[in-house]
Amino acid sequence: MHRFANPARFQRIADAALPWAVAVTVVLLAAGLYFALFASPADYQQGESVRIMYIHVPAAWMALFVYTGIALASAVALIWRHPLADIAARAASPIGAGFTFLALASGSLWGKPMWGTWWVWDARLTSVLILFFLYLGHIALARAFDDPVRGARAAAILALVGFVNIPIIKFSVDWWNTLHQPASILRFGGPSIDPSMLLPLFLMALGFTGFFVVVLLLRMKTELLAAKLRAAQLARLQPAAAAGR
Amino acid sequence: MTEFLALVRRDLQLAVRQGGDAALVLVFYLLAVLLFPFGVGPEPNILARISTGVLWVTALLAALLSLERLFVAEYEDGSLDQLALLPTPLPLVVLAKIVAHWLLTGLPLTLIAPFFALILGMDAAGYPVLILALVLGTPTLSLIGGLGAALTLGARRAGALLALLVLPLYIPVLIFGVAAVDAAMAGLTVAPHLAILGALLLAAIPLCPWATAAALRQALG
């Protein structure tokens, strides 16, 4: 694992992987959107608004997936003092917050015609809203200190504590029998949804994952460059102090 | 164990001699509760209906108010470094400080809550459960809050940040605390809600001091 702790090696790998990741993401999202908007049937109950699901469900999956990734990266950063894991956790949280917001907003747009309300205080919705605030807290805490290392450590501890919310979100629809529908893909007995709808859903989910990878790599590269820039400015301002680091 | 009790006694003595935040927290609690009859109108039915939620939300905000100062004074005068150097494990030291914090804020809030319930006209059936739920819930609030206080130690705008970190984590306690009292007033069984509050507390007692100690070590560098 520490083979990849070298920022220069990471930069090389990221540079090599980025064009491929961008290409794959564009193809997946284009195919996913085509199937989601044109080549899949309307639902017999929900009509055309079922197409919101092809954004909503992958965004919600990504919200959980990204937070799990942040928690893992935070554990790695705290246990092995892995410098890139810190940067990855910090770079991922605004993206995760974006996905969470997208899931909440698209769910709200779907809820108005289907449930007749923009928002209900249902267990799933509430726990995802808490997740959104956990993301915001993570972003704010990581930036609240003059010393970036201290901010990263504090944010890592917060990310691990907040992880208790993830299983609560996943199982909220099973534990509390409220308005949000239970899982129809990852469940015992296989998916309960038609293959013609499953295909665009998976294409979109993969496309979202690709998008996450692309933005994460870009953000991590930017963070590394910013750190380099800071170090260079410090070295210029106080050569003796920088040499002592 | 003697160190643990000595630490709790030390914090209590400090609070007594310096005129701690406890009185301030209670005054805040009273004022915040008093805002609601003005805000929603003095209609007895409405006040009785929302009294549980009002008492829990204001108790939670009052607990939050005193959290920011939990470690700050000791962080600034350096005694936190000394506490971290004690042979006593740091999580135990943290737990002692949290216990003292609860005795100074959570316990008074719990004891005074029935009187506030009285002025809001809460149904008498809810009183015992309200006290029981607060006894089980407020220590969890102190434990989670201690973690937030340790994480934001030395941060810019620590107070606002603390609220952002801690309030989302308070929501489960709020949900089950209110549900227990509402169930009691509706004549339903309260045991499941109280059991979950107890479970939250039992999970928080070992986990929060441990994470708080880790956060304090980061703060001390």
Brief account:
By secondary structure, chain A is mostly helical.
Account of the 3D structure:
The complex is a heterodimer of chains A (245) and B (221). With 245 residues, chain A is mainly alpha-helical. Chain A has helices at 7-37, 53-80, 83-114, 123-142, 148-162, 165-175, 195-237, 239-244. Chain A has one domain (2-41, 51-179, 206-244). With 221 residues, chain B is mainly α. Chain B has one domain (2-220). Helix content of chain B is 84%, strand content 0%. Chain B has nine helices and no strands. The longest helix of chain B is centred in the middle third of the chain and has 31 residues, at 90-120. Chain A binds chain B through residues 78, 126, 130, 133-134, 136-137, 140-141, 144-146, 150-151, 153-154, 157-158, 160-162, and chain B through 147, 151-152, 154-158, 161, 164-165, 167-169, 171, 211, 214-215, 218-219, 221.
Topology:
The complex is a heterodimer of chains A (245) and B (221).
Chain A: H1 7-37, H2 53-80, H3 83-114, H4 123-142, H5 148-162, H6 165-175, H7 195-237, H8 239-244
Chain B: H1 2-17, H2 22-40, H3 44-67, H4 72-77, H5 79-85, H6 90-120, H7 127-151, H8 158-185, H9 191-220
Helix pairs in contact in B: 1-6, 2-3, 2-6, 3-6, 3-7, 3-8, 6-7, 6-9, 7-8, 7-9, 8-9
